[in-house]
Amino acid sequence: MSGEVPGRRGGTAPTGRLGRMLRGPRPEAVPVLAGRACALVGLLDIAAGVFPRFRHSRMHALAEVLPGALGPFAAALSLSAGVLLLLLAHGLKRGKRRAWRAAVALLPAGAVAQFSYRHSVVGVLLSLALLAPLLRHRDQFDALPDPRSRWRALANFVLMSAGSLLLGLLVVSVHGDRMVGDPSMADRIAHVIYGLFGFEGPVAYRGSTSWTVAFSLGALGLLTAVTTVYLAFRPEHPAARLTGEDEARLRALLERHGGRDSLGHFALRRDKAVVFSPSGKAAVTYRVVSGVMLASGDPIGDVEAWPGAIERFMDEARAHSWTPAVMGCSETGGEVWTRETGLDALELGDEAVVDVGDFSLAGRAMRNVRQMVKRIERAGYETRVRRVRDLGDAELERIRRAADDWRGTDTERGFSMALGRVGDPADGDCLIATAHKQDDRPGPYGDLKAILHFVPWGPDGASLDLMRRDRSADPGMNELLIVAALQAAPKLGIERVSLNFAMFRAALARGEKIGAGPVLRAWRGLLVFLSRWFQIESLYKFNTKFRPRWEPRFVVYRASADLPRIGIAALQAEGFVNLALPLPRFLRRRRPEDRRPCTHTPAPAPEHSVRAA
Questions:
Q1: Which of 108, 153, 399, 445 is deepest in the core (most CB within 10 A)?
Q2: Adjacent-strand bridge partners of 346
């Protein structure tokens, strides 16, 4: 017996490599394969529209008598279809329904154009070969649209204009043998720009080539205009935000279960969305960044209800074809995520937690911190540690403005371990530690010199949110305020304080010890090098001063191939990378909840460090 096994109806079914080829790809793999094939066909369509047709093709005699053999129209159609197919390739990979509909319409058009202008049988067969599995597996392309804004039209206009200019320059130049004279590069660029707007340029051609070039340039210009207008006027699908009802439900869960995770209160960021378990006893908050559905910390609520919230999270990711990921979950959270979803986990770093009862400035290990604090106190600084609800409105407003002014970067940072606001009336349990010094010439914020903001961690804990200081203040403000907060904690009923998150802390610690192997030393060297731009080593060394215990944090992901994409999305969410085109300030619409300054970002130096995954 070889090559066949009994089929379902008493017949036979092929097995082995031949059987796999006859069955075709797995349905779930079709979107990725279709996206890659769509990009290839798009490139072929562009090449067919750009380069002159083969005059001695075997199919030339037949193609010349077809109605679609009008060269200029076919070239423009092939070029337009190719550009659109390239734009649709990513949507097909993600199983987007609208991308599937557009591709099904464009593939036959591109095939006709290729056959008419280039007489390319290969291009036609490839287009039809891609069309067949798209139609057969159309049920695999059911993903819902992503959150989007009309301002993507601006990005499309810039990118399409640049691409059309380069592609148009190629169209003009490949017909060099039919040019009249020898036009300069400036003339060719001018011809492209005129052609994109539908006007005759300074470059002349012999025969019908001028019509082919004109139609191709006009098609590129029209394509740029049409896609920009479509993106500008299509209905918006704005990113989901935390509603007042959602926030109230989350606060109720935190009231009962907030002591489990130090990052729980950061789920109340109002630029996150949320999914609840069917019972309503657990929730997962997230933000969608570049197609990655990024959750942070552990699920909120009862651990027994976590699987229900996680299932809802994964259902939402599948419905939109988003890549699921979790940043900074605890070991318990990582175990539940991997068990319930089949995802994998990777240690990301460690969180520094100080037990208030064990903290003391005494001893040789605390000598440097002790001396720094004493020196600053002798310089005339004093500290105050209070709940937000105990501050007056005027002082709160001054602290908000100071924190915003002292941010140190133009871009707001923070997502997984930052609240994004200071002094909200709903956050009355938050702590604010401030440093003050009377000067002969007080600044715009009076005697205020530095600020630390902590969010609640259950009834008996606090979690560091932001650290800001006046650049003219003496070094060591953050050390001073952390010590002040730890010393004031018992009076406020706080038994544990979570400080900054140290990324790859274990590798840094082990790599500097005697006996570390070459691989570990090389990895540590790379982390030290990256610390020039990201606070990796500086945060680790800063946290170590307070003799904390280290709690590991993990990233949860679907496949190793997703890690680079998740990493870029996390950097975007945290504010370290900005891939979007910013709007002019006067055009930005402000939501009511955004009218308070969002002050959760560090400055580059350790004195301004902030917990960030």
A1: 399
A2: 555
SS3 237: strand
pLDDT digits (tens, 9 = 90+) for 413-435: 677 788 888 888 899 999 999 99
Cβ burial, residue 135 (10 Å; 0-12/13-18/19+): exposed
Contact in structure between 193 and 161 (CB atoms under 8 Å) = no
Amino acid at 83: V
Q: Give the closest residue to 449 by CA, choosing from 536, 363, 388, 379.
A: 379
CB count in 10 Å sphere of residue 340: 16
- Give the three-state DSSP class for 302: coil
Strands (E), 96-212: none
CA-closest candidate to residue 396, choices 405, 387, 408, 407: 387
* Distance separating the N- and C-terminal Cα atoms of the chain: 58
**153 exposure class (CB count in 10 Å sphere: 0-12, 13-18, 19+):** middle
Count of beta carbons in the 10 Å neighbourhood of residue 577 = 15
Question: Strands 323-329 and 382-387: what pairing?
Answer: unpaired
- β-bridge mates for residue 248, sequence order: none
Q: What is the pTM of this model?
A: 0.72
pLDDT 10s digits, 243-291: 889 999 999 999 999 999 999 999 999 889 999 999 999 999 999 888 8
180 Cβ contact partners less than 8 Å away, ≥ 6 residues apart = 203, 204, 205, 206
Q: Where are the alpha helices (DSSP H) in 54-120?
A: 60-63, 71-93, 97-117
* Strands 292-296, 323-329: pairing kind: parallel
